[in-house]
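Work Package 3 committed the consortium to producing structural models of liganded targets before the mid-term review. Because experimental data for this complex are still outstanding, the team generated a predictive model from sequence and the ligand definition alone, so that downstream docking and mutagenesis planning could proceed in parallel. The input record is reproduced below exactly as it was submitted to the modelling pipeline, together with the SMILES string for flavin-adenine dinucleotide.
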Amino acid sequence: MSRRGMHDVVVVGAGMVGAALALALAREGFDVAVIEPRAPAPWRVEDEVDLRVVALAPSSTGLFGRLDVWKSIVAARACAYRRMHVWDALAPGELDFDAADRGESALGWIVENRLIQQTLWQSLQNDARIALHCPARVTATEADAQRRTLVLDDGRSLSARLVVAADGAESALRGMVGIVTQDRDYAQRAIVAHVATERPHESTAWQRFLPGATIAFLPLADGRSSIVWSVPDNEAARLLMLDDAQFCAELGAAFDFRLGVITATTSRTAFPLRMRVAERYLAPRFALIGDAAHVVHPLAGQGVNLGLRDAVELAVVLVDARDAKRDFSAESTLRQFERGRRSDNALAAHAFDAIQRTFASELVPLAGLRGAALAAVNRIGPLKNFLAARAAGR
Ligand SMILES: Cc1cc2nc3c(=O)[nH]c(=O)nc-3n(C[C@H](O)[C@H](O)[C@H](O)COP(=O)(O)OP(=O)(O)OC[C@H]3O[C@@H](n4cnc5c(N)ncnc54)[C@H](O)[C@@H]3O)c2cc1C
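The resulting structure, written out as tokens with the ligand in place, is given here.
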């Protein structure tokens, strides 16, 4: 802690996004504290692959590279995907993205959440410039002209010139500073599991749209696929009750048997889906990032990629202000971050929402649009390049 008795920045929440921001700022010489209620569950190579995986865009793996964690993540377990193939149950259009067309070796990587979290956590623990408070929660906060103060559940208090909330979709801190969200409940659940397939996954991320549902098959390093099957709540409840053979038969049919017969290899679990957008990202000496600021439908696999872009943008704005000898926690500085990221995140959230609505519909006029939309995107080079670049985080 500085001689003034306060940190430069306190990051609340050490999920993937908060931990990445804390490391990025510490490496730039900021005095950082992190508050987290629970350390991540340990990751071990001999354990079953974590059921939660994410598709990381090159913008995210690039950040992890700069934070010196990417090499050890890849060495532990990760799977590059070189192609993405999207098609629809109701219409003939298909959409293909190939890394080779863009002169790249991969479109992105599939990595276990727990592996990323543990690797970042170890870096936090090993960084002498970071004060890690765990287990700890914030119970109250207030700001004055110089600082924001946080009261922790063990009675201690911490002060910082800036507090960043990265405490996830249910962010307690967001509520404490009075930031409200706009929510849309999709009344859907995403069922996740790892399955074996008769045919190889070809290092391809596969996605099929069906009426009211989407299925993604994401390639795993051991040859299996991680599925994300988003279906209405009541359908999810039914699918979760099926035995393995029945579930795999239904999954195979819904996936058009694109990779042949499917065999269960893990249990299944499900996550409720919603869109949630914070109406603002700022309060005095306070900023929101990651899922605390925006939750999007997982159909495009972009949630954490957007959050990591928040972390990059905020770090850039803070470093620039400090280097120019300006107050890095002043509202005018934080506005630069908010302007850049809120429009980008809102655009993404509403685009995924629109795709979800179009493809969820069984109405004939909309169904007619589905194939046409996919076919058009596939034919129009610039539009496809634009979508590929967005997926890659550029
Ligand atoms: C089924 C599914 C599939 C997905 N697939 C993808 C994908 O392929 N690609 C992708 O980019 N995204 C994907 N996502 C989204 C992605 O998982 C999230 O966007 C990401 O985990 C958010 O990270 P975060 O660090 O912002 O929040 P979180 O991961 O929620 O982390 C928040 C942290 O804050 C801590 N915390 C909570 N409360 C407090 C408190 N009161 N005080 C202090 N700390 C607190 C928590 O313990 C946690 O460590 C998917 C989501 C789902 C549901």
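Reviewers should note the following from the model. The first strand starts at residue 7 and ends at 12. These observations will guide the Year 2 experiments.
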